[in-house]
Amino acid sequence: MIVEYCKKEITGEITEDFEARFVKEIDNEELKVLLLAAYYLDMDRLYKFLCMTIVSIIENKSIEYVRNYFGTKNDFTPEEEARLREELTWAISGDNEDEN
């Protein structure tokens, strides 16, 4: 997929339509692997595009959804988490119901 993207970039054929098709058929795990590859290969355009794609996936999702998406554990005590949720209500007040 990286080679396919590079060919399109070299020939100037990258469009919003191409990028939409590029990520349409891949799952979240493949998307994260591509993101890491773009980062390590210093492919700025692809990296930024994949970051924005992931942002659109996790935007307005719950903290639990984002933790699950990235495979991270909650290392806060229940008290710490409750305090942070209260302090940062403005940041989490727009959470939508999560879709898996």
Write the layout of secondary structure elements.
Blueprint: H1 2-10, H2 16-24, H3 28-40, H4 44-58, H5 63-70, H6 78-87, H7 89-92
Helix pairs in contact: 3-4
**Which percent bin holds the helix content?**
55-70%
Low-confidence stretches: none
Mean pLDDT: 89
Radius of gyration: 17 Å
Label the overall shape.
elongated
> Distance between the terminal alpha carbons, to the nearest Å?
25 Å
Q: How many separate domains make up the residues?
A: 2
Strand segment tally: 0
Give the helix tally: 7
**Percent of residues in beta strands?**
under 5%
The class by helix and strand makeup works out as mainly alpha
Largest sheet: none
Question: What order do the helices and strands follow?
Answer: HHHHHHH
Please give a structural write-up:
- The protein has 2 domains: 59 residues, no CATH class; 41 residues, no CATH class.
- The chain starts with a helix and ends in an 8-residue tail after the last helix.
- The protein is mostly helical.
- The protein contains 7 helices and no strands.
- Helix 3 packs antiparallel against helix 4.
- The longest helix is centred in the middle third of the chain and has 15 residues.
Nutshell version of this structure?
This protein is mostly helical and 100 residues long. It has helices spanning 2-10, 16-24, 28-40, 44-58, 63-70, 78-87, 89-92.
Features:
2 domains; 7 helices; mainly alpha; 100 residues; 0% strand; elongated
